[in-house]
Specification:
This protein is α/β, with parallel strands linked by helices and 235 residues long. The protein has nine helices and nine strands. The chain has a domain of 163 residues: 3-Layer(aba) Sandwich (Rossmann fold), CATH 3.40.50.150. It starts with a helix and ends with a helix. It holds the Pfam family Cons_hypoth95.
């Protein structure tokens, strides 16, 4: 059995222990309504787990368990491989923000390739708990897991401070436009925005945010875009 398989098995065991602990935790009658909701979400974490595979960098071939939650779509291996071929394999020193982290696949790929900081933002309590387990097991010191709203996190970022913004919002929601507007302000002048969507976005649609398509790939039902600020995209 390979070292990466052993590591993945250990992480799976830790996540299952965390899920069991959440389900068995006693209910505090004095807890706030928000805390009760958080506990319910954590306890609702699914019994089974799937897997993703980190495809490059220091954790290459490491298999990581992911919760099988409704609507959760880990970015396919082929798409992640293409994205990091576009970006280059060495992200040393990069500052990254994954606004809709989900499984953490995109942000962890960036961290695996040497990014200096990776902020993983996720609103689902159970997924946040899973990301925290993964971060600890990988000893990913550059990764910071934050529970919250992805668009709000982008708005709170210092303008032009992020080298790579990762956007993979729910396909059935209306977060694409506000996320792009916020990302356009957060991204550095020479930075990149990755957008995963159920359809292609055009330069005309992106112009209002000062962005342009730099690369595009269609893989099944997924449209993967690499965007840049207009000035950088035309260089």
């Amino acid at each position: 059995m390979s070292r990466s398989t052993l590591r993945g098995s250990a992480i799976t065991a830790e996540i299952r222990k965390a899920q069991a602990a959440a389900a068995a935790a006693p209910v505090d009658p004095k807890a706030s309504k928000k805390s009760a909701k958080d506990k319910a979400a954590a306890a609702a974490a699914p019994k089974g787990v799937g897997e993703i595979r980190i495809i490059g960098g220091q954790w290459k071939r490491t298999r990581l368990p992911v919760a099988q939650r409704p609507g959760l779509r880990p970015t396919p291996d082929r798409v992640r491989e293409t994205l990091f071929n576009w970006l280059g394999q060495d992200l040393s020193g990069w500052r990254c923000l994954d606004a809709f982290a989900g499984t953490g696949a995109l942000g962890l790929e960036a961290a695996s390739r040497g990014a200096a900081s990776v902020q993983l933002v996720e609103s689902d309590a159970a997924l946040v708990a899973q990301l925290q387990v993964l971060q600890a097991k990988l000893q990913a010191s550059a990764v910071r897991v934050q529970r919250g709203d992805g668009v709000a996190a982008l708005k709170q970022a210092t303008p032009a401070s992020v080298d790579l913004v990762l956007l993979d919002p729910p396909f059935d929601g209306d977060l694409f436009a506000p996320a792009l507007q916020a990302a356009a302000k957060a991204v550095a002048a020479q930075g990149f925005i990755y957008l995963e969507a159920p359809r292609a976005w055009t330069d005309d649609e992106l112009a209002a945010s000062g962005l342009a398509v730099y690369r595009h790939l269609k893989a099944g039902a997924v449209h993967a875009h690499l965007l840049r600020p207009v000035a950088a995209a035309t260089e």
